[in-house]
Amino acid sequence: MAYVKPKKHLGQHFLEDMQIAQDIVDAMSSYGGYNEIYEIGPGTGVLTTRLLKKEEYKTTVIEIDTESVHYLKDVVGMPQEQVIEGDFLKLDFDKIAPHPVGLIGNFPYNISTQIYFKILAHKDQITECVGMIQKEVADRIACKTGGRTAGILTILVQAFYDVDYLFTVPPTVFNPPPKVDSAVISLRRNDRKQLPCSEELFFKVVKQAFSTRRKTLRNAMKPMGLSPELLKNEIFNKRAEALTVEDFIELTCNVEEDRKKQQD
């Protein structure tokens, strides 16, 4: 009987609970009007087999593990043209899917953060994403109230997506069991088409603000060369974790204006 051995260096933990697999697939809603789904890291096809039953979607899998690729083709029955063998993080997604698509997967823990940064880079194509990741990362992305849980991904993801924490998944339903709890979260592209400031600068401001979490923004953002006048703003008395998405957008607009004044 064909078998895929979980590989530690790929961060593979194969889901064995069929009901949870169905719940993950059912969480996809075609938000944004897409009719094509890309599954990242299908492994043994637990999600894939259920996606294939959804006739309203065309399912394409992206898998880096050659052993899994053979299994998906030979056992699961995935057509050759719906299997992409490669690293999702290195693929040119603009060429693969230049149109609205959905994304789904039991994401490898060791690259889950990178996956969400790539989703942000293709936010105008990826209108919906349902992913299972480490609970700690899920809590950070889905954080609603700020505080210690908030981080870079909290702000960057929620600037462009509505995020919902769907449910927690225990280690016991995986082979091999991870050492931590997992969680499933969903992302749906919001109505914000563009920021009123430079998107590149927005990303830089957020990353710099969280670079030293225990410091106030006044100290954390010193490397950005802000003027003494701007630094008098009371927002710089706060820590990054206390700011909302809208606060960061306003802050970036002020930083952008400050830079223009310094150049004049």
TrEMBL record:
The reaction(s) this protein catalyses: adenosine(1518)/adenosine(1519) in 16S rRNA + 4 S-adenosyl-L-methionine = N(6)-dimethyladenosine(1518)/N(6)-dimethyladenosine(1519) in 16S rRNA + 4 S-adenosyl-L-homocysteine + 4 H(+)
InterPro entries cross-referenced by the UniProt entry: KsgA/Erm, rRNA_Ade_diMease-like_C, rRNA_Ade_methylase_Trfase_N, rRNA_adenine_dimethylase, SAM-dependent_MTases_sf
Leading EC class: transferase
Gene behind the chain: rsmA
Function: Specifically dimethylates two adjacent adenosines (A1518 and A1519) in the loop of a conserved hairpin near the 3'-end of 16S rRNA in the 30S particle. May play a critical role in biogenesis of 30S subunits.
Highest taxon in the source lineage: Bacteria
Protein name per Swiss-Prot or TrEMBL: Ribosomal RNA small subunit methyltransferase A
Entry's EC annotation: 2.1.1.182
Family assignment from sequence similarity: Belongs to the class I-like SAM-binding methyltransferase superfamily. rRNA adenine N(6)-methyltransferase family. RsmA subfamily.
One MF term in the entry's GO annotations: RNA binding
